[in-house]
Amino acid sequence: MAVTIDHEDDGLEAARPRLVDTDRVRMTGHERRAQLIEVGRALFAEKGFEAVTIEEIALTAKVSKPVVYEHFGSKDGLYAVVVDREMNYLLNSITQALTAEHPRVLLEQASFALFDYIETHTDGFRILVRNSPVATATGNFASLLSDVASQVEARLAKEFAYRGFPKRMAPMYAHMFVGMVALTGQWWLDVGGAKKDEVIAHLVNLVWNGAVGLQREPRLISRR
To answer: 38 exposed, middle or buried (CB, 10 Å; 0-12, 13-18, 19+)?
Structure first.
């Protein structure tokens, strides 16, 4: 506990130091809300939604339970705010990164945007990849990946048309590519130690060189 010594100006009280707990300095409503979001974010990432309680959130934030209810209504409400904030940040980051026209460069940009987010917002990513137990305004991680794929597919369709592939297949391939990036990013976080640039280079190598060798009319070689 941090303390300061305060003295009265007159009388015997001047000789008595008064302890002031600086940890209990009142926050504004905006500051308190931001603090609770960060506390909830860290706890949800570490333990998952079900294992975290309002009591634990309040204890960690050094507030009473009614303060948490006042700002978010419930644990579900706090969780939804945390998820929405992470979803918006990640989607905006990827959207802003997608500036290229060439599909290979586009794939590199999307990969770097996601991997950078995983690296700098690890708690947020761990929350997003879990199945959300409550409804959020911006959906879930799967819907976010679908949004990203939709941005990729238009440019991919141009490349398909140029190479003589059916444009109607572009949405499917866009989802395949984006899904591969997301799963590789999760693996990279879980295993640790692998260099980001090296992992992305191998990822793009697999996707792009696989795409270059695509068959126009692929057929299965095995029978069920």
So the answer is: middle
DSSP 8-state class, residue 101: S
Give residue-wise pLDDT tens across range 162-218: 777 888 888 888 898 889 999 999 999 999 889 999 999 999 999 888 777 777 777
Distance CA 185, CA 69 (A): 35
Mention every residue, 6+ apart, whose C-beta is less than 8 A from residue 170: 153, 154, 156, 157, 160
CATH number of 83-212: 1.10.357.10, 3.40.50.1000, 3.20.20.140, 2.40.280.10? 1.10.357.10
3-class secondary structure, 139: coil
What are the distances in angstroms from CA 181 to CA 17, 33, 59, 80, 143?
Answer: 61, 34, 38, 25, 15
CA dist., res. 132 & res. 143, Å (int): 12
Q: What is the CA radius of gyration of the chain?
A: 25
The sign of the CA dihedral 59, 65, 70, 74 is positive
Closest C-alpha to 91, from 147, 134, 156: 147
Nearest to 51 by CA among 141, 133, 122: 133
Q: Are 44 and 30 in contact (CB under 8 A)?
A: no
Q: How many CB atoms lie within 10 A of CB 20?
A: 12
